[in-house]
Design a protein that fits this description.
The complex is a heterodimer of chains A (about 260) and B (about 300).
Chain A lengths: L10 E11 L4 E12 L4 E5 L6 H9 L6 E6 L2 E2 L7 E4 L11 H7 L7 H14 L15 H13 L5 E5 L7 H18 L2 E6 L2 H7 L2 E6 L4 E7 L11 H18 L8
Parallel strand pairs in A: 3-8, 3-9, 6-7, 7-8
Antiparallel strand pairs in A: 1-2, 1-4, 4-5, 9-10
Chain B lengths: L9 H4 L18 H36 L10 H14 L1 H33 L1 H14 L4 H12 L3 H25 L3 H9 L4 H38 L5 H10 L3 H29 L1 H6 L7
Helix pairs in contact in B: 3-11, 4-5, 4-7, 4-9, 4-10, 6-7, 7-9, 9-10, 9-11, 10-11
The chains are: A alpha/beta (about 260), B mainly alpha (about 300).
Chain lengths: ~260, ~300
Amino acid sequence: MTISPTLAADLEIRGIHKRFELEQSAVEALRGIDLTVRSGEFVSIVGGSGCGKSTLLRLLVGLEFPSEGTIRIGGKPAGGPSLQRGMVFQEPRLFPWQTVVENIEFGITGNLSKAARRETVREHIELVGLQGFEKAYPDQLSGGMKQRVSIARALVNRPGVLLLDEPFGALDALTRITMQQEILRIWEAERTTMVLVTHDIDEALVLGDRVVVMTPRPGTIHRILDIDLPRPRDRTDPGFSSLRRAIYGEFFQQSETSVEYQI
Amino acid sequence: MPTLEIALPLEEQLPAQAGPESDRAVPATTPRRRIAPSKLLGRARDALLALAFPVVVLSVWEFLARRGSINPSILPSPTEIWSTFLDLMKTGELENHVRTSLLRVVEGFAVGATLGVLAGFAIGLSATVEKSLVLVTGLLRPIPIIAWVPVLILWVGIDEASKVTVIAIGSFWPVLLNSIHGIRGTDPKFLEVARILGKSKWTILSKVIFPSALPSIFTGLRIGVGIAWTSVIGAELIAASSGVGYLIMYARELSQPDVMLVGVFSIGIVGLTIDFLLRRIERRVLRWNLVHQGKERKP
């Protein structure tokens, strides 16, 4: 049996508001979010803590529901979680009682023959470059390797959209750069629609076709930049630097009123 | 009394040798091979220390008994107890009593532990079940097992059934409480992963909640089997015609302190063996947990 190719899906976010009811008051996490992500596109969302970027991803994956507005994925209303959407969190969230193979296999939902499951898992181990570590437990892996397993688990159902919630935020600087190259390679191989949330401006610029800048309290989209630089992107390139400066500018401008942004 | 406290054996209370997390980019500070000999030495020293104290006690005891400072009809010398032990082994009497008691433990524990795990899942997974049982469990749990013995003799007779039931009750509580604890302790982040992947309730239960609760359930089983073993002796002391508890009571009636003490110490030895075996099983079944806690690194 051959694995069906990924059918990338587009995302349509219209007029999203999200409020959290607390005991006494309500907190407005997101206000008036409009965003369209073309199928096969890589969009980075960058913002400081509390700007609602993770909340937005949780809405997209279906773990939370918007207070107002609609989300359509591949033309259909999003609703609860579905296999069309995969998600990678900042913490790898691997089951410590399962080996690498078992963790990735857990990602498969649906009726597949044993041989097909094994083949799918093998392919994905290859895709994330973890050959030789099939039998290892997550606790025996480094942070970067754990995140590779997590990515493989999210991709194994061939979702049309992959949502990445600060997936490399907990990794050291060098591993992070390697993983950024890896996710680009995977994206180019799979052509899945990807939405990445990060607080790292360079990461957003290296990866995204577009960079969405969000500002906090309440979370709103401040600006959307098209990144017309060829990949792989050179961080020392003048075009790259000027884009970085532009985004930094957005934050420094605000830093007079909000000092929470960290680089 | 069974509580949620987790009784860790001495060796597990020691700090782990190596941290669980070390990236490949970080050079290993202490290669594994160099640890091995010193670790072995440490184990030998631990074993010596563990043996030294009983040896001293036994020597003093033997010495005092031979000098005639201890009344042998109250406390016989260690050598006397030992030779009685050998006699009882030769006739097969001790073995029969131990086997009878063990069989009761196996039956009672199987029932109690099964019910404990099942009830633990029901309570741990459903707030409704928990709320409806909170008073009943709160009332029943503090009752010492021995208090049930006369009641059970009335209800199910003086035969095996009353003893097996006592053991079932005794092992039920720690298994129940630790199962609930384990199920409640399931990381909600893991449950989110399962939800995103569209897993069925059954898959979530069997592949996420159950394995995650298993270390805690095992702790409950270990405490439960210990309680099962102590409650069988208690039940036999009160009413039985066989078993180690009976052996002790009968020897008291015949004024045979050496036989009594053989009985008493064999309880300890059997209990120690059971715990040792269970820990071996746990190590095998829950090897991932050792890795998780940083006690084992290599696959």
